[in-house]
Amino acid sequence: MASSSLDPFRLAFTEPSWDDLRIFLAVVAHGSMNSAAKALGQSQPTVARRIKVLEETVGLSLFQRGPNNLELTEAGQAILDAASPMGEAAAIVSRTAAAYRPDPDAPVRITATASVTLFLSLYAGELHDAAAPVEIAYIPTRHRLDLASGEADIGLRMRHLSEGSDDLVARKIGQIAFAIYARTENPKAVIAPPEDPTLSRQAAYVAEFAQGRTIAARIGDMPIRYQAAKAGLGAAFLPCWLGDSDPDLVQVTKPEGDLIEDVFLVMHRRSRNRPNVTRVANALANLFKRNQKALVGG
After folding, report:
1. Is the dihedral of CA 269, 270, 276, 280 positive or negative?
2. Which one is predicted more confidently, 2 or 243?
3. What are the record keywords, sorted (predicted)?
4. Which residues, 6 or more positions from 210, have their beta carbon under 8 angstroms from its beta carbon?
5. Which of 5, 121, 186, 239 is such that its CA lies 20 to 30 A from the CA of 222?
6. Which tens digit of pLDDT belongs to each residue from 138-169?
C-alpha cells in the first residue's frame, strides 16, 4: 500500500526548515501566497512549493484553500502559534546584529513617554544641532523599547530601572513632576486616564481626586488630555512644566511624593561608538539640568 504524501509516521522525525517556516509566517501575515511572494522577493510558485514541502515535512495540511483565499486549519493555527516566537526571535537577532554595526548616517532614536517627548519637542532645534549631520527620530511610548536589541539608541526612563542587561548604562538627569490642572480652582468634572486605578499610580491618584466629581471623559493621550482641560472639559493630570506654562490653567493640587519622578537616561555601552548619540545624550542631560525648576513645578 502506497503511503500518503502527508504520512505523519514516515515524517515524524523530520524537522521543518526555518526557511520554510519563515515563508509560512509570511503567507499568514500577508494573507496570500502571491502577496507573501512579493514581500519576500520570490515567485509565487516558489512560495507554493515551499509551503507544500513544509506540509509534507510536518505531515499536516496547514491551509484550507478557497477560490480566492487561504484559511489556517486547526493544525496550521497550532504551527503558527509555535513558529511565531521563532519569527520574533529572528527579528530581534537582525536588529541586534544591525545595532552592533554602527551606521554613521543612522538617525539617533530617542524613546520616552508622551509627556517627556512633548517637552523635548520644545527644544528640537537644539537637539537637532547636537545630532547633526544625522536626524533624530522621536519614539513616544509608554512601553519600554529594548535598547539591547537596538529598538532605540537612548531611553528616558522614569522612576524604576529594570532593563535586565549589564551592557546598559544609566544616569539620573533630573526629575519631572505632575499635578492636577483645570480652568478653575474647584473643578466639578475630571478627565481621567483609561487605566485601571489598581494598575497605575497616576490613575489611582486621579480616581481619588475624582471622588464626588463627574468623570467628563477618559483620555489616555496626554497632549489630547491637555487640550481637553484647556478647553474647559474638566481637571486633568498633567506634567507641571506644561500646566504651569499655560495661563488658562491653574494648579489644583501640589506635586509631591510619588508625583515627582526621577528621570534616567539609559544607553547601551556600544552607543559610545557613535559620537552623534553621545552628543545628543549630553544635550539631553544639559536640557534637563537647565529646566529643572520648571520640570518639578511650583
Report:
1. negative
2. 243
3. DNA-binding, Transcription, Transcription regulation
4. 190, 192
5. 186
6. 999 888 888 877 788 999 998 656 555 568 88
Contacts (Cβ under 8 Å, ≥6 apart) of 145: 111, 139, 151, 152, 155
Tell me how far apart the alpha carbons of residues 58 and 10 are, in angstroms, rounded to a whole number. Answer: 10
Compute the distance between CA of residue 218 and CA of residue 111 in angstroms, rounded to an integer.
25
The H or E element containing residue 48 is: helix 44-58
Predicted TM-score of the model (pTM):
0.66
Nearest to 84 by CA among 167, 10, 146, 26: 26
- Which residue is listed with cell 537637532? 128
Query: What class is the 18-99 domain?
Result: mainly alpha
Residue 137 clears pLDDT 70, i.e. is over it: yes
Please write the tens of the pLDDT for every residue from 214-238: 999 999 899 999 999 999 999 999 9
> In the chain, where are the structural domains located?
18-99, 103-298
Tell me how far apart the alpha carbons of residues 111 and 156 are, in angstroms, rounded to a whole number. Answer: 6
**C-alpha to C-alpha distance for 298 and 241, rounded to whole angstroms:** 9
Q: Could you give the CA distance from residue 233 to residue 224 in angstroms, rounded to a whole number? A: 11
Sign of the C-alpha dihedral computed for residues 90, 91, 95 and 98 taken in this order: positive
Q: Which amino acid would we find at residue 93?
A: V
* Beta carbons within 10 angstroms of residue 7's beta carbon: 12
Domains 18-99 and 103-298 share a fold: no
Domain spanning 103-298: CATH 3.40.50.1460: no
d(CA 160, CA 144): 11
Query: In this structure, are residues 82 and 67 in contact, taking their beta carbons and an 8 Å threshold?
Result: no
Whether 132 and 193 have beta carbons less than 8 Å apart is answered as no
- Joined grid coordinates for residue 287: 536640557
